[in-house]
Amino acid sequence: EKQTEDNNSTECSKPGTMDLKFTSSRKYISISVPSKSQAMSPHIKSVDDIVVLGINLSKFSKPTQFFICVSGVFMFYLIYGYLQELIFSVEGFKPFGWYLTLVQFGFYSIFGLIELQLIQDKRRRIPGKTYMIIAFLTVGTMGLSNTSLGYLNYPTQVIFKCCKLIPVMIGGVFIQGKRYNIVDVSAALCMSLGLIWFTLADSTVAPNFNLTGVVLISLALCADAVIGNVQEKAMKLHNGSNSEMVLYSYSIGFVYILFGLTCTSGLSPAVTFCSKHPVQTYGYAFLFSLTGYFGISFVLALIKIFGALLAVTVTTGRKAMTIVLSFLFFAKPFTLQYVWSGLLVVLGIFLNVYSKNMDKFKLPSLLGLWKKSVEERKSRTLSQTV
């Protein structure tokens, strides 16, 4: 009996082992803890994996991840902007901005359906009523934005898109009664002055400038400011996925636009025109939609890995590059007033980002810089004396 007890104690003393056995004389427990690789099925990806377009970014180092994300954002969104302006440069296409949005929504719905089939959980988590609201706002954002290109230069439209903070702050003051600090107010003031200056320059040098385009892009900006909050709240409340959001919001929006074009008799002329230029319309629209869909995937990965601060910096640089390429590839009048007003908008964006991250970094004050210079002089004098 003593020998049996010794054997049992030896078996129980093995690390990580506890097995439940029953014998005639005694019982003991043994637990075996599986390794990390055995704990998860090989068919299920790790929750920490970040996969973009089939590339598992988690396998790379941080600098490599940053390079891949930034390259993806710049490459796809620069092509996106180029194709968007190229479509509207087709002679006679400018009145069909809503039809382009209809085609774009159709492609986005297909892409979202394909992506949804590749994930395991295909259930719809967000209620249909919420998707109807999101789809309406999405139609307003993208439809009005595309239509405004029939009246504005592409750089002017991009500058307006950079200033989403202005309608957000106005809505926060009048709807929620929010109060903003001096940095937020300064950011909105810089953006407003930059927008006014850029628009005045556009009206001076552009022969086909139309105030209707300013109204359309302003309404699109207001819808864009609202839709982000609604999407974020819905996805957090119901734990919805990005592919689900894309599929249902764009498919319902497709129905909205189709119904609107049918009622206003705008569908038939657009279809007739595009059937005469299929490559310049449907072909470019497919690539335009595909690059936009891929671009947002890299932006989301950039936010998840490095945070919103760095993501905003990268996307702002991308928009600046888009404006530069627009002047290079498409003939349009240019004035230095575009440069100064654009820099003023960039300053407003920087102040907005700084306001949201004041606890992470602080700008040096003039008093602090003065004290630092005085201390450096004292230390230099002391070292010379020694």
TrEMBL record:
Keyword terms, alphabetized: Membrane, Transmembrane, Transmembrane helix, Transport
Membrane topology of this protein: Multi-pass membrane protein
The record's Gene Ontology cellular component field reads: endoplasmic reticulum membrane; Golgi membrane
Signal peptide residue numbers: none
Where it mainly occurs, coarsely classed, is membrane
Q: Where in the cell is it found?
A: Membrane
Drop me one GO molecular function for this one: 3'-phosphoadenosine 5'-phosphosulfate transmembrane transporter activity
Note whether rRNA-binding occurs among the keywords.
Answer: no
Q: Which residues cross the membrane?
A: 66-84, 96-119, 131-152, 158-175, 182-200, 206-227, 247-270, 282-302, 309-331, 337-354
State if Ribosomal protein is listed as a keyword. no
Domain of life (superkingdom)? Eukaryota
Q: Which family does it belong to?
A: Belongs to the nucleotide-sugar transporter family. SLC35B subfamily.
Q: What is this protein called?
A: Adenosine 3'-phospho 5'-phosphosulfate transporter 2
Q: Which organism is it from?
A: Machaerirhynchus nigripectus
**Source gene?**
Slc35b3
